[in-house]
Amino acid sequence: MPLPLVNQFLIPFEFWETRKPNDTEINTRRSNGCHPMLLDEPVKVNCIDIINTPEKSAFYISSNLHSEDI
Question: Which domain of life is it from (predicted)?
């Protein structure tokens, strides 16, 4: 698996599972592997790509967020 590029970081699968999305936020785009990021505060996020690892699924996030924003 390649290392994350600049402006990308890894979010554990559990983080996605524990989010409580609004009905308007649940509109995921699974066909192209992109999902809206669900955070408590509105933030700008481009796309999340699902990465299947032997352990579990995780999400790479392409955005200008920093880890302290989570």
Answer: Bacteria
